[in-house]
Amino acid sequence: MKQHWKIDPRLDFLNHGSFGAVPTVVLQAQQAFRDELESDPIRYLAPERELEPKLDYVRDVLSELIVADAADLAFVLNATAGVNAVLRSFPLRDGDEIVVTNHGYNACNNAAHYAAERAGAIVRTAEIPFPVGGPGQVVDAIEQQLSDRTRMVMVDHVTSSTGLVFPVQAITDLAHARNIRVLVDGAHAPGMVPLNLAELGVDYYTANHHKWLCAPKVSGFLWVHPQWQSEVRPTIISHAANRPRPNRSRFLAEFDWQGTFDPTPLVALPHAIEFLQSFYAGGIDEWMAINHNRALDSLALLSAGLGIDVSTPAEMIGSLVTVPLPLHAGSEAGNANDSLQQRLREHYRIECPVFAGIEPESQLLRISLQAYNDLEQVKRLVVALRQELDVT
Ligand SMILES: Cc1ncc(COP(=O)(O)O)c(C=O)c1O
């Protein structure tokens, strides 16, 4: 599999999760689109000439993959933009409450705080332990923060630093039973876990294409339930705000054009999806299952090699694996520049992130298992960690 990516073969690259990595064939397709664009920029980029039809085709391909109505699907640069558009459009009032979790992505939790502060609303944080016992613990922690003032729950589908697949269906059912809207930050989800937005029935769902769908950087989507589409505006207001379009919703028109941009990452998305779909006989489902199994094997290797018990239920694992480590493990005491992440990179040529822990005095080491990774890389990581952490 490695031959299909440009990843430096001398590197054990175990961090697909942060920014993804694009297969060469998809980069070539994108370059062809760039060449086409540059050969006649106005024709390609003027929204009502070629751009909107091109984006509509991408919308159709994507909507099939995530089981959604294409009319409900807007494009954004990334999940951070999707979350910001929803939160900054949301009609929050003084005293309202938004519930987020302590596993939430910092940038997106910041966006919730920003929107809340402007409206005089408050953000409550559901505290979920790590390691977590099971999905019920996540739902319970969120339920504890709900009140009759809660207007929205924002939750990750796959958490960033802890790499957990959250029970978004159960969380949605819980919130909807109380008339609370749900915003799912699915940044990592497409290409990692099966998605069916029609069934899920959330209010808003945003995700990245450039992570596990292996599309070129940068692009993502924002799905909005038809009921809220007239309310949700992009953070960047542009031409479509005062230019009525008889045959197009303002929702699509506003998100499709937020100023001059490079649409080729989006136009190349069907090529990335095609790459994932056609590789194995079982299509993208088989691709995801292989990554998932590799993640479970990796968790077993890390747990056994480091002598730690991370009994995360398999249903809460996609293709990210996180293990908690003591705070200063692998770092020279008192040297803030000497992080475990840096030492892995500099001494072992292993690239994987080490994040601040959820629990006090802990840090989190996360590995990503994409098709170009293998268990030999994880074994090398275990050897390096045993050395750095003085595991005997
Ligand atoms: C859960 C989650 N949300 C949002 C993001 C932000 O992604 P982006 O920087 O592409 O907006 C990430 C990135 O890792 C993430 O893990």
From TrEMBL:
InterPro entries: Aminotrans_V_dom (IPR000192), PyrdxlP-dep_Trfase (IPR015424), PyrdxlP-dep_Trfase_major (IPR015421), PyrdxlP-dep_Trfase_small (IPR015422). Residues 22-381 form the Aminotransferase class V domain. GO terms for molecular function: isopenicillin-N epimerase activity. It is an enzyme of class 5 (isomerase). Keywords: Isomerase, Pyridoxal phosphate. Its EC number is 5.1.1.17. This is Isopenicillin N epimerase. It comes from Novipirellula galeiformis. The lineage of its organism: Bacteria, Pseudomonadati, Planctomycetota, Planctomycetia, Pirellulales.
